[in-house]
Amino acid sequence: MLKVGVSQRDITPPLNLNMPGYFIERYAVGVKTPLGTHAMVLDDGKSVFALVSIDIITFDSCVAKEIKRRASEKTGITPEAIMITMTHIHTGAPTLRPGNVFNKVSKKAFEHMKTMTVEAIVEAYNTRREASVHYGMGELEGYSFNRNYRLTDGSICSNPSKFLDKLAGPLAPIDRSVSSIRFVDKNGKNIGHLVNFACHCDTAGGGEFEYCADYPGEMRRILKEKYGEDSITVFLCGCSGNVNHIDFDLWKKVGGYPYGLGTHYAVLGKALAEEVLNVDGKAKTMKDTSLKLERRVFRAKRRQPTKEMYEWAVKNIDTDNDNDRSYAKSWKKLYEEPKYYTNIEVQVMKVGEFVIVALPGEVYSDVSLGIKEKSGVEHIFTTALANAGVGYVPTREALEGGVYESKLSQSSSYLELDTADRMIDTAVELIMKIDSFLKENC
Questions:
Q1: Kind plus residue range of the DSSP H or E element containing 244
Q2: 218: exposed, middle or buried (C-beta count within 10 Å: 0-12, 13-18, 19+)?
Q3: Same domain, yes or no: 233 and 117
Q4: Which of 180, 187, 195, 332 has its CA 20 to 30 A from that of 236?
Q5: pLDDT tens, position by position, 148-200
């Protein structure tokens, strides 16, 4: 029988640190909701997995590797079987990423986050107990939208608030599925959930400079009210590189921004929690609770700045325009110290009758839909910002269209055109290996 352990730690940093995510400096003056790191350990007697969700915007692969190494030394879980994901909140602590002039790192807060995450994994490992597993899928309509729009002149724009009179429609469909796996101990007490949903965690910002765990934090709070304080939800943020909470057609219709600044996180968190509870109410019980892992790393090419971009960067390195100054620093650095490849880790975990696909970076929703369509597997989590932040991973169409997510940067966008397609193909190949295992052992 599957054994499950969960744990959480508070990682809310001190006040007056810069919150990364925008092209301005924002220093935290308060705490709207606490930030946390949440861990779950699964053990089927042959394999042991750890799945972790951290309330932070992003970090590099070296950080995930360090957390995995330290946790492995204390638990014996192999680093390859540990999944470290980020919720990608825009109201959290500064983090170790190069190239963003507004990211003033607090090494003390960052080290605290790593230490607390290791502690959470260790405690989850040490508190494993037998559990039944219940799973299901739903859908949350009206809360997430493709932020890449095609305009009436044929061009493509991201977050088109300045072009509301030229909207032709969203560039592509998005994945609005809500997936939930619930674990219950032999006494009927809820141990916790794995929840997967895709929407950019940037619904709590606006003009309020307070730390906030965004809508995943609100969802976790409501599920605790339902199932008890000891119940812990690990939120795996879906592929939402091109997905946010803004319906630009509604914005156009009502003649203004249609959401509460600094409060919409509570609206979305409540709606997501209600859909999870709805899924729980009709969930199926897993008969097969075995675990299996497949993993592959491939090298993705990186785009390079042109000589013209470098010359522009040199001229604008000290400009008063925050946006231009950030890109100037990135392009100058990339031109003078070029990097040509980035390792992309694709991690696939079979958890009973569910398959969890973990991808690095801010992956477009098209990738999630592509994996689900090409694999033919019914129950799939696709989670992004797993094990590394590698910037945006747009589709070829979006990249060639010149949207914000495609603009070359040292940290936010640098991967070549074919990276999204390679992610899909690699994930499907690994899923097929697991699917073959399932068929051979059913």
A1: strand 243-244
A2: buried
A3: yes
A4: 187
A5: 999 999 999 999 999 999 999 999 999 999 999 999 999 999 999 999 999 99
This prediction's pTM: 0.95
Shared-domain flag, residues 163 and 262: yes
Distances (CA, A) of 125 to 37, 39, 242, 293, 384: 15, 9, 35, 18, 24
In this structure, the answer to whether residues 100 and 185 fall within a common structural domain is yes
In a domain, residue 406? The reply is: no
Same domain? For 363 and 311 the reply is no
Q: Are residues 276 and 383 in the same domain?
A: yes
* 58-83 per-position pLDDT tens digit: 888 999 999 999 999 999 999 999 99
For residues 101 and 347, give the distance between their C-alpha atoms in angstroms, rounded to a whole number: 32
CB atoms within 10 A of CB 223: 26
CB-based contact 106:211 (threshold 8 Å): no
d(CA 390, CA 381): 20
What's the farthest any 2 CA atoms get from each other in the chain? 67
> Alpha-carbon distance 35 to 221, whole Å?
12
Verify that 195 and 317 share a domain, yes or no.
Answer: no
| Structure token digits, residue 114 | 């790593």
* Count of domains observed in the chain: 2
Instruction: Give SS3 for 39.
Output: strand
Rounded to 10 degrees, the C-alpha dihedral 126/283/355/75 comes to 0
27: which DSSP letter? B
Residues 21 and 75 grouped into a single domain: yes
Flag whether 214 is in a domain. yes
CB 38 within 8 A of CB 266: no
The H or E element containing residue 41 is strand 36-43
Closest residue by Cα to residue 389 from 17, 6, 11, 21 = 21
Residue 200 lies in a domain: yes
| Paired residues of 343 in beta bridges | 299
The boundaries of the domain holding residue 139 are 3-289+345-389
